[in-house]
Every structure is written in structure tokens, then in C-alpha cells.
Design a protein that fits this description.
alpha+beta, eight-stranded antiparallel barrel, two-stranded antiparallel ribbon, 43% strand
Length: 146
């Protein structure tokens, strides 16, 4: 039995990470987000929206002008609409969200609404993220990560 279990894992059986819905055991979709000279890494979820964003980034980086909204997020439009996978979602700092198919959102505080979760910024605390994002508008560059 133990040999079978090891064999199944080695053959690429997928398991889900309950925190981000990213597939483990396969190459994850990773992107970089650069704001005010700071580059952060993020892992995208496994849904058609995230896959469409990743595919869009295969053609080159995307620059988004983002503004504060509601004291909890930065929001800006993507160059084109992506498929929606809206679901009741509780956000936290570092969550990447697609709103109404076109708006790319980086949360730096909490919120609850019907959104499409895209992924999560890794290794940045809420206070660090707020400092990186600053106040007012920012220019954000999305690119394929490693």
C-alpha cells in the first residue's frame, strides 16, 4: 500500500491547496507585481480567469494605473476583459481579485463580496504591502514570474 501511495504522488496526481486553490504537484502559475520600484511574487489560482491572465502575460508585461478605492484596495483596468468566476469571497491583504471581468484589484485590507479570486502575493505582510502601495495612484507592472 505504501508503495502505491508514493507511486500515485510521483505520477502527478493533483491535490488542491485549500488556501489558494493552486494546484500542487504541477508547475504553478507565478507572476511578479512591480510597484514603486518593489517587485513582489504572486501565485495565481487555478481557474479560467487566472489562466486567461497568465496567457495574456505570455505576450509581455502589462502596465496598469491603479487608484485607491474604499480604503482597502488598489484597482485598475486590465487591457481586456477576462472570464469571470465570481464567488462569495472574504479578502485579506495580498489577495489578487478580478472585479466585473476587467478590473484588477490588489487588496491591502479585508472585504467581502462576490469576486473572482485570481491569486495571492507571497511573503509580504499587511503593513509592508500598505507601505509599498502608498497612498493615491500607482503604476503597477504585471509580468510572468519564475
Amino acid at each position: 500500500m505504501m508503495f502505491f501511495a508514493l507511486s500515485a504522488c510521483a505520477s502527478g496526481v493533483e491535490s488542491k491547496n485549500s488556501n489558494s486553490n493552486s494546484i500542487t504537484g504541477e508547475k504553478k502559475m507565478k507572476i511578479t507585481i512591480t510597484i514603486n520600484g518593489t517587485t513582489m511574487n504572486a501565485v495565481l489560482n487555478d481557474n479560467s480567469s487566472s489562466r486567461a491572465l497568465y496567457e495574456l502575460l505570455q505576450n509581455g508585461s502589462i502596465t496598469i494605473n491603479m487608484r485607491d478605492y474604499g480604503g482597502m484596495e488598489k484597482v485598475g483596468n486590465l487591457p481586456k476583459s477576462l472570464p469571470r468566476n465570481d464567488t462569495p469571497t472574504d479578502t485579506d491583504a495580498g489577495d489578487l481579485i478580478l472585479y466585473q471581468g476587467r478590473a484588477f484589484v490588489i487588496y491591502y485590507d479585508t472585504n467581502s463580496w462576490n469576486f473572482t479570486p485570481l491569486g495571492k502575493i507571497e511573503g509580504v505582510s499587511k503593513s509592508e504591502l500598505k507601505k509599498i502601495l502608498g497612498s493615491g495612484s500607482v503604476t503597477t507592472i504585471l509580468a510572468i514570474g519564475e
